[in-house]
Description:
The protein is an alpha/beta fold. It folds into two domains: 4-119, Response regulator (Rossmann fold, 3-Layer(aba) Sandwich); 129-225, Winged helix-like DNA-binding domain superfamily/Winged helix DNA-binding domain (Arc Repressor Mutant, subunit A, Orthogonal Bundle), CATH 1.10.10.10. The chain has eight helices and twelve strands. The protein has helices at 12-24, 35-44, 61-69, 85-93, 106-119, 155-166, 174-181, 191-204; strands at 4-8, 28-32, 49-53, 76-80, 98-101, 129-132, 135-138, 143-146, 149-151, 172-173, 211-216, 220-225. The strands form three sheets. It has a five-stranded parallel sheet with strand order 2-1-3-4-5, sandwiched between helices. A four-stranded antiparallel sheet has the order 6-7-8-9, covered by helices on one side. Strands 10-12-11 form a three-stranded antiparallel sheet. Helix 2 runs parallel beside helix 3, helix 6 (155-166) packs across helix 7 and helix 6 crosses helix 8.
Amino acid sequence: MARNILVVEDDHNISNLIQLYLVKEGFDVRLADDGGKAIEEFQKQVPDLILLDIMLPVMDGWAVCAKIRETSRVPIIMLTAKGEVMDRIQGLEMGADDYIVKPFEMKELIARINAVLRRTEIPNDTSKRLTFDKLTIDLDSYELIVDGKRVDTPPKELELLSPLASTPNRVYTRNQLLDEVWGFDYFGDSRTVDVHIKRLREKIENVSPEWSLKTVWGVGYKFEAAGAGEGAQ
């Protein structure tokens, strides 16, 4: 069965060109030319992936991404003419899985789509639950439980904490974490990792003496634990 992609782009020349190439690659494609229609199409049928422009009528791409992330982890690739570092960081922090700046080559777009789809395929028999003293990280349900209470946490924060906690005491560089969580060459900027770590610390710091999220100065970060977690359950 062909993968379904929702293309949200108000420039019809661009959306039609994207549709042409994606259909040639074997995808089913639906089009929406404003943010309101994007939400309507999403609610009619959840696609396998969304290509989402930022500058849109009715609702901009940031608002559409935020609305979708309230209920779904469907992969989102932001399509935009904006190339500033903070714009890229904002998109990724809001839950986007990748970010591509116009103008772009169609071959690159297809490669990024295929890469994101591969990364988001999680085998059904793979458990994603880690348990430590007063801390549970559950990527099956995308929940963070701290001292018995569920803490609202954006998907990317959980996806950043998970590799750190699954390999206690291993030091990750910022670039390794970018590759692990976002899975693409991140334009040489790693501040988004620092921002996510800061927000995670606000939620889990000083909860238990048995583990902590540590900065390894000049290198990166590690999840320091007295012993390994209980692992998958």
